[in-house]
Amino acid sequence: MTEPSRTICRAEVSQEEISALVVAAQRGDSEAFAEVFEVLLKQLHKRALFLTGHPEQAEDLLQDTMLEAWKHLKRFDGRARFFTWLCSIMTHRHYDWLRRWRMKTFTDWLGGDDESRIHTEGMVG
What we know:
Elements: H1 15-26, H2 30-52, H3 55-71, H4 82-110, H5 114-120
Helix pairs in contact: 1-2, 2-3, 2-4, 3-4
C-alpha cells in the first residue's frame, strides 16, 4: 500500500487513500485522523445538519462524533466504509442527545406550577 499524501484540500480522495489514512490513525497518527476527518467533513456536516436541523447543534454533533471516533478508532474493523462507521457514531450520538432532551423537557414540564402538577399526577405512573 502506498503512503497517503498529506494534502488535506484535495477535491477527490479514493477509498484506498482513506483506508490508508485510517490505518495510520489507528496506529496513533493524529494527523492522519485529522486529514481523513477533513476529507469527509463536508459530507459529515450535511448529515449532522440533516439530523439536527440547526447549524449550531450540527457543529456540536460533528465535534462529538469526531471525539467519539478518535476514542474508539481501534474498534473500526474495515467491514464497512469509514464514512458509514462515522455516520453510525453520529446517529447514535444524536439519539443520545434526543433522549436527554426529552427527559429534560419532561422533567421541566413536571416541575411546573402546582396546578399543572395536580392535572398530571394521574398521567404519571
